[in-house]
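Researcher: Sequence of Small ribosomal subunit protein uS5m follows. Predict its structure.
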Amino acid sequence: MLRLAVCSSETLLRSFSALTIARGASTAAVNNSFTSSQKQSLLPVSVPTLHNFRGTSFFNKLPAEQIWKGVISVSNAGKKRGRGKGSGRITPKDLNKGQVIGFGKANIVWPGLSAPIIRGRELVQQQQLPEDKEREAKLKKIRDEMVNFKRLKLSPLERGWSGSKMPGRSIGAPDPIEDDHFEGFDTKCLELKTVVNMKGNLGRKRRVSAMVVTGNGNGLAGFGFGKAVDIKTALRQAKNRSGQKLMYFELCN
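Model: Prediction complete. Tokens:
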């Protein structure tokens, strides 16, 4: 029993000493590798980097008409709730207007595209010219000319009771009936409104209702009503009906 205990203790000491020697060797190897990696880190390292880039969006998938429609238009549900009243202020612009292939923000000469390949006896080289500072202003002016147009101003005699609205404005004499011409007559619009009727098969049906009065200034006058889908037709109907219902009124000084 004693011999076995002595032998086992000796083997334990030998294995422990071998373990310490191996641990020292491993630490030395780690230190050497660390110094070598530190030296290598001083050199410029180029590591490839990956960037997620999505080259497609609704801007380059959809045409310009549909994109402008998404900006300007209002849904039927929105119209019922009174939205989109100021949508008419925004008008679509053709952003391709003024854009020419080969001419851009960077003023570069491209032989065969924006310039001839041979000029005289010399071969034209690709080169960059000074930047055109007025280019953006010119493009903006061209695009604004398509949208911003000057409204025609009405003379004070041609205006209505409230600005340029139809009530109070003159629409001329009634149309002649066979050989009878309404000379000296003038027609004024008294009322112009939109009427909505609910139909069982068509739903809400919108029409325009107009009331006008016509006269010659000598006591002969008449009034009439007209209803139609558009404003011009309703005014024409009311004007012609007013000419068919003339009445004479005695004038008082």
